[in-house]
Specification:
- The complex is a heterotrimer of chains A (about 725), B (about 180) and C (about 110).
- Chain A is mostly helical and about 725 residues long.
- The termini of chain A are far apart.
- Chain B has about 180 residues and is mainly α.
- Chain B is about 65% helix and about 0% strand.
- Chain B is built from 6 helices and no strands.
- The longest helix of chain B is centred in the middle third of the chain and has 26 residues.
- Chain C starts with 5 loop residues before the first helix and ends in a 13-residue tail after the last helix.
- Helix content of chain C is about 70%, strand content about 0%.
- The chains are: A mainly alpha (about 725), B mainly alpha (about 180), C mainly alpha (about 110).
Chain lengths: ~725, ~180, ~110
């Protein structure tokens, strides 16, 4: 008899959905009838409660799951039959297993913290219920993605989170730049989705060609529990097909998880409100690709080629995004590229065959990246919604809580030993070094990726230090250089500053929210020049609803590694908690170590010291570099930047090239289709046909006299003709055809 | 077919034959009279005769309805329209070239008649005994059926009639704006 | 007593139908064309009733079920109702055309010319 709590798994998805409905149906009315202040507090509380209750149920379920023996930790619950055709039945069913429940914990746990934070961050937002409706809906879809027991259900969630991401990036849709960013995210994600759909289709066709696999299980052969029974043998017998499926699925993962060819959308997605960046573009949605690879690890494990490509793409992304981060001046853009880079590391782990390590980094990254994003949101909040680090400096005096929590996030992402980030990065790089999974033409890609991955970790430490130093340290308080009476425009500021401003992207908008002109004027009366960043600005600490989530996340950023992995210096802590927990969802053998722990690799003796010191050295270098505030070479005058940094700021021309290629290429293709295919071939055929019709119609024209009686005559003649034919037919055949 | 196959000449047959003659003659009259008023009066006579043919079949309700609805209501409507529009005879002089339609229509109509009569109706030549019980066309039977089995079509028909009324008013009224 | 053959009724109906069909083609007055259409509808009604009374179809068992002879009458009722609606709308159209052109000659109306 199974624990009845498993039957309540629907509420995990249902509560965010109900929250969404409440926001949609009653949000406006409540805020109107209770007044903005009370109404927003009520609606915000409902939104937070929906996610927090979902989290609580998740905790109960995960406890019940942990009580089961390890080999029985996979429970499924069916709600109804979604698709039921011929030999395939796809029920709407949820799967409770360690992988899905781990993701549920991350999504709802961090999600509720971010919701709480958002109640403070968005307090001045006019469209308050719409924002929380989107957020709740996003959480619901994300839960469908991870909890679904088959790929079609994963696809529902996949598309749903894509939609919510689009809606949230374009939340301030009245600014055209935001709409463009939202469109870009949506379109780039579609490219990935094509890959995912193709992969799913190939998988279905591969399995359906195996009669034994399809025969059993009452038609639900796409459900994971049935699928995983025979998928290993099927993919082992069809290695080429396994590679094709794995690559198609990986294209989908690349789109959603912002990997190298398709990462373009994520930095632009920073146009959305900061809690959105934290929730979607750092903690949860972008990890969907890693979840997909974990689910489908059997397919990837069967294909060394696909695994190698995953590693290569992950490595390229990690290095490339880290380099771009050096050229960014927008605090959220730095974090965005750092997210892309960290996702690359996760894919290295998955490509090397250590899927659970990928999940480990998903979890720790979710903690510290959500923390950093929320912290950056607090900074932006304190700095009147200016996102440019060149206007910051010495903020630790003004916003101490934000400062302390962000320092914890910073050392975690930089990989200072014993922080959570250090544990997961160490695992990724070590396992990649010793992995035998990613072999391409006899070359062990994984080993090289491991070594180069250390360089990526080093870069991470340096650019994160740059961000922290520019924001919190340095004697200069640079916003005081902006004259007060300029009213947001800096005409009379010294020339180069103004010039740079004209070219500089200030982020989505300087107010952070949209009002009608009258409302804006009223707000300005009330707050004076509160919303303008200038020399009179006093940064102020954020309210508790915003710093409590920061504190909680900081705790986990610091301690999650010790908790989930353990450390040899603390023998009282349980070891390898996460690995043992995720053991039941390992469907693929880890090809590594070659028997006795590991086969020797070159320069093996350096691995451990490098692992300990790479982050610390990066931080020290960064601190030395930025100790004296903003270097002239990174100031407002782009002409004084060194060529590397200028190129990095421009994403090394990649974004431009891709967009241009898309537009120009699309234009060329369109012109070709228009001038040649359409005008010559299609129109030719149509015109020719039309000409022939014209000739014909002249011939038949006299039938169409326009006289009603003529038509009546035609009807009469026609019916007599049919009658005659019938008579003939019956008389010759006797009524039998 | 020889004469022995013909049915016995009974009083009923004589009456029905006589009514049929009137129906046929008046039907020709509808088409042949040049004056619309005369056509219309022929049609009234035709429908009236038809009602008596229905009576002869025992379909009393249908016959009554025929008189009330067709001769009473619809034909009066026709009369009104003809009077209102002051329609005179079709103009005798045709300004256009020779119209081939009547020349073509009569033989085709004849072909229709002959074809259907010889091929479709002759198989029924031996049917002389009605199967319907007496009282099959009485108001009781009709009412019961109409309001049980056919109640939905009946309701829909009422909707159709209402739409027809509204449409007719819409089409025929004078435009107030003009 | 009941020895009027079915054929007599069918013959009368068929003749009325053919006459009406010819009339629709040859007459130029739309009101008369309408009358011819009514003539055809009534011919069909007569045929319906005749078949309902004699039920000669091999598909219907002799003696028939009740609705076998009621169905024909129901069809007649519905035909009458539809005809009434049609006449109302049709005559309305004729009125409208007359108001527009002061003349109702079918041969004058040839806007449908192809």
């Amino acid at each position: 008899m199974q624990n009845p709590i498993f039957d309540q798994v629907w509420w995990v998805i249902g509560l965010p959905l109900i929250g969404w409905l409440i926001q949609c149906l009653f949000g406006k009315n409540v805020i109107q009838s209770l007044g903005p202040a009370t109404g927003k507090r009520v609606m915000g509380s409902i939104a937070v409660l929906a996610i927090a209750a979902s989290f609580a149920i998740g905790v109960m379920i995960i406890q019940a799951l942990a009580q089961l023996p390890a080999d029985q930790r996979a429970v499924s619950r069916t709600l109804f039959d979604w698709i039921n055709i011929a030999s395939i039945r796809i029920p709407f069913e949820l799967r409770i297993d360690p992988l899905s429940m781990t993701m549920v914990m991350v999504i709802t746990g961090i999600g509720s913290l971010i919701h709480l934070y958002a109640t403070g961050y968005m307090a001045e937002e006019k469209d308050y219920p719409r924002f929380f409706a989107y957020l709740n809906l996003f959480v619901a879809f994300m839960l469908v993605l991870v909890l679904g027991n088959n790929l079609p259900m994963l696809f529902i969630g996949w598309e749903g989170v894509g939609l919510c991401s689009y809606l949230l990036i374009g939340f301030w849709y009245k600014d055209f730049a935001n709409s463009k960013a939202a469109n870009k995210a949506f379109i780039v994600n579609r490219i990935g989705d094509v890959g995912l759909v193709l992969g799913m289709g190939l998988l279905v066709s591969l399995i359906s060609s195996n009669p034994a696999a399809v025969a059993g299980a009452d038609g639900r052969w796409l459900s994971y529990d049935v699928l995983f029974e025979y998928l290993p043998s099927i993919v082992a017998a069809n290695p080429a097909m396994a590679t094709a499926i794995a690559l198609c699925l990986f294209v989908g993962a690349c789109g959603k998880s912002a990997q190298f060819p398709l990462y373009l959308w994520l930095p632009d997605a920073m146009a959305g409100p900061t809690p959105v960046s934290a929730l979607i573009h750092a903690a949860t949605m972008v990890t969907a690709g890693v979840v997909l690879l974990n689910r489908m690890q059997v397919v990837f494990a069967a294909s060394p080629v696909a695994s190698s490509i995953v590693v290569i793409v992950g490595l390229c992304t990690a290095i490339f995004a880290a380099l771009i981060a050096f050229g960014q001046t927008d605090i959220k853009k730095v974090l965005a590229y750092s997210t892309v880079s960290q996702l690359g590391l996760m894919f290295i782990a998955c490509g090397a065959g250590y899927y659970w390590v990928g999940m480990f980094h998903v979890i720790t990254h979710a903690f510290f990246k959500a923390l950093l994003f929320l912290g950056s949101g607090a900074v932006i909040h304190a700095m009147a919604h200016d996102q440019d680090m060149r206007n910051y400096g010495n903020l630790r005096k003004y916003i101490p809580i934000t400062f302390i929590t962000m320092v914890i996030g910073w050392i975690a992402i930089a990989g200072v030993p014993l922080t959570s980030g250090w544990f997961s990065k160490e695992d990724i790089l070590h396992d990649a070094l010793y992995s035998q999974q990613a072999m391409l033409g006899g070359v062990n890609i994984g080993m090289y990726a491991g070594w180069i991955g250390f360089f990526a970790a080093f870069l991470t430490a340096v650019y994160m230090t740059r961000m922290m130093m520019l924001t919190f340290w340095g004697g200069q308080e640079r916003w005081k250089l902006i004259p007060a009476h300029a009213g947001g425009h800096h005409e009379d500021h010294h020339h180069e500053h103004a010039h740079a401003h004209a070219h500089h992207d200030h982020g989505p908008d300087t107010h952070g929210f949209f009002y009608t002109d009258e409302e804006l004027a009223k707000t300005h009366e009330e707050h004076g020049h509160h919303h303008e960043l200038d020399e009179n600005h006093k940064p102020h600490e954020v309210p508790p609803s915003m710093w409590i989530p920061l504190a909680v996340l900081a705790l986990f950023s610091a301690g999650a590694g010790l908790w989930l992995k353990g450390y040899k210096a603390f023998p009282s802590l349980p070891k390898d908690t996460l690995e043992k927990w995720l053991e039941p969802v390992k469907y693929a053998e880890e090809k590594a170590h070659g028997g006795a722990h590991h086969s020797p690799i070159p320069f093996e003796q350096f691995i451990t010291p490098i692992g300990y010191w790479v982050g610390i050295v990066g931080i020290i270098l960064g601190v030395l570099w930025y100790l004296r505030g903003l270097p002239k070479a990174e100031g407002w005058d782009l002409a004084r930047w060194n060529p590397f940094r200028r190129a990095a700021a421009d994403q090394f021309g990649y974004d431009r090239a891709m967009v241009d290629a898309g537009i120009e290429g699309g234009g060329l293709l369109g012109t070709f289709m228009w001038k040649v295919v359409d005008n010559k071939i299609v129109d030719g055929a149509v015109n020719g046909l039309a000409g022939a019709m014209g000739v014909l119609s002249k011939g038949f024209g006299w039938f169409q006299s326009g006289y009603a009686r003529g038509y009546a005559l035609m009807m009469l003649v026609g019916s007599v003709a049919i009658l005659g034919w019938l008579i003939y037919f019956f008389n010759t055949t006797g009524g039998r055809s | 077919m020889n004469l022995s196959q013909l049915p016995n000449i009974s009083p009923n047959l004589i009456i029905v034959g006589f009514l049929g003659m009137i129906a046929i003659v008046t039907a020709i009259g509808v088409v042949a009279f040049n004056n619309p008023i005369r056509s219309m009066l022929s049609l009234v006579a035709n429908f009236f005769t038809l009602a008596f043919i229905y009576f002869s079949m025992g379909a009393e309700m249908m016959g009554i309805t025929q008189i009330i609805v067709y001769t009473g209501a619809i034909m009066v409507l026709f009369l009104f329209v003809i009077m209102l529009l002051n329609l005179s005879a079709d103009s005798v002089i045709s300004t256009k070239k020779l119209d081939v339609k009547p020349l073509l229509a009569v033989p085709v109509g004849l072909a229709l008649f002959v074809g259907l009569l010889s091929q479709v109706m002759m198989p029924f030549a031996k049917v002389t005994q009605p199967t319907a019980p007496s009282g099959w066309g009485g108001p009781q039977a009709i009412g019961r059926t109409l309001f049980t089995e056919y109640v939905w079509p009946f309701e829909i028909i009422s909707l159709l009639l209402m739409v027809g009324i509204v449409g007719a008013i819409l089409l025929a009224r004078r435009r107030v704006e003009e | 007593m009941n020895d009027v053959p079915l054929l007599v009724y069918l013959g009368i109906g068929l003749f009325m139908f053919a006459t009406g069909a010819v009339g629709v083609v040859v007459r130029r007055n739309p009101v008369v064309v309408f009358m011819c259409i009514e003539l055809m509808l009534n011919a069909v009604n007569l045929t319906f009733l005749a078949f309902a009374r004699y039920a000669p179809s091999p598909l219907v068992p002799p003696g028939g079920q009740q609705h076998t002879w009621m169905a024909g009458q129901m069809a007649v009722i519905f035909v009458m109702a539809v005809a009434a609606a049609e006449v109302a709308v049709g005559l309305g159209i004729i009125m409208a055309i007359y108001r527009l052109r002061n003349k109702v000659d079918l041969d004058e109306m040839s806007t449908m010319r192809g």
